[in-house]
Design goal:
Length: about 350
């Protein structure tokens, strides 16, 4: 039998992480480890619970205990693991942590890199990532940009809401004109016309280069997204609208692209399926993350060759990042070989 452990990890953040839904200065993630008690490689995975989907650290710990009682420690192959997790489905973030830990362990046993085990293309050694400006008072933007040295990133993300979105975009374009921007609403608006009015307001800002507009409306507003898709001057990307049960025929009628997050997909295999479905429906591909350590970001980089845009800055939000599996330099992510 394999030995599995789950350890909570409290992560102080380098700054207040504020999006349209909430704000935080710490995050509690969970680290999963698996190993043969006789020795050999250790597989590790990370769960970043997402309250948007009802996930909490406490609930995931209870689920993990239930999975052990159901026989998780008896699993010896990935096929057995997938069958087990289908029969006993945990929260998506926990599923990713368990699956990624097992696959890291199994790939090491087989002497393969994780990307090769997964059948993914070999990732680049240096992957550009976006870096995010959270919601803040407009007067704080210049100091934040300077302190975080945001000018080193080739693409930036700006978290927006109806109240401060215009002012934040005005400030970032004044400071870094022409920089491609991911404008992320996190479901803050209520209807398509309000979003289009916002777009019309900010589009004339000098130096604005909008790469894409990410999930401005709630996922339930499918008709609004269909209406907006043909009218938005910028590519419209799904985030919260794409879960493990997404209907891609419907998604293709609402969006121009998809932001796939492994925590939300529930693991590599479903994440790969989402990326392949996205491409098959002629949509643009993006990979995102939650607030995560380099452990989960290292995992995301294993399949990053399938994404046209990577927003994998979660480890850069964490103070004293504990694992050191990914190094950022000049806006590029370099993964360690494990």
């Amino acid at each position: 039998m394999l030995t599995w452990t789950l350890t909570p990890l409290v992560l102080p953040l380098r700054f207040t992480w504020k999006i349209s839904r909430n704000a935080s200065t710490t995050k509690t993630n969970l680290i999963v480890r698996v190993q043969d008690p006789k020795g050999g490689p250790v597989g590790m995975g990370e769960a970043a619970p997402n309250i948007r989907y009802g996930e909490t650290p406490e609930a995931l710990q209870m689920e993990f205990t239930a999975l052990l009682q159901a026989g998780l420690d008896k699993i010896r192959t990935e096929a057995e693991l997938q069958e087990f997790l289908t029969a006993h489905p945990p929260a998506h973030a926990l599923r990713f942590a368990i699956e990624s830990a097992f696959i890291q362990w199994a790939a090491a046993q087989a002497g393969k890199p994780v990307w090769q085990w997964l059948g993914a293309p070999e990732p680049a050694r240096a992957v550009p990532t976006a870096f995010t400006l959270p919601i803040m008072a407009p007067g704080e933007v210049a100091e934040f940009v300077r302190e975080q040295r945001m000018d080193r990133f080739q693409i930036l993300k700006v978290k927006v809401n109806e109240e401060s979105g215009y002012d934040l975009l005005r400030e970032i374009t004044r400071l870094l004109p022409g920089r491609p921007l991911i404008i992320d609403g996190n479901e803050a608006w209520k209807d398509a016309d309000a979003v289009l009015a916002f777009v019309e307001q900010v589009a004339p800002l000098p130096g604005l280069h909008a790469r894409l507009l990410e999930q401005p409306l709630p996922a339930s507003h499918a008709a609004d997204y269909q209406y907006m898709r043909a009218r938005s001057p910028w590519p419209l990307f799904a985030d919260e609208s794409v879960t493990d049960t997404a209907d891609f025929e419907a998604i293709a009628q609402q969006f121009h692209g998809v932001n796939m997050k492994l925590m939300k997909a529930g693991g590599y295999r479903n994440g790969l399926r989402i990326l392949h479905e996205t491409r098959a429906h002629g949509l643009q591909t993006m990979m995102g993350c939650m607030v995560e350590t380099s452990l989960a970001i290292w995992g995301a980089l294993q399949i990053s060759a399938l994404a046209e845009v990577c927003d994998l800055d979660g480890l850069l939000i964490v103070q004293n990042e504990p694992f050191g599996l990914v190094r950022e330099e000049a806006g590029l992510l370099h993964r360690q070989d494990v």
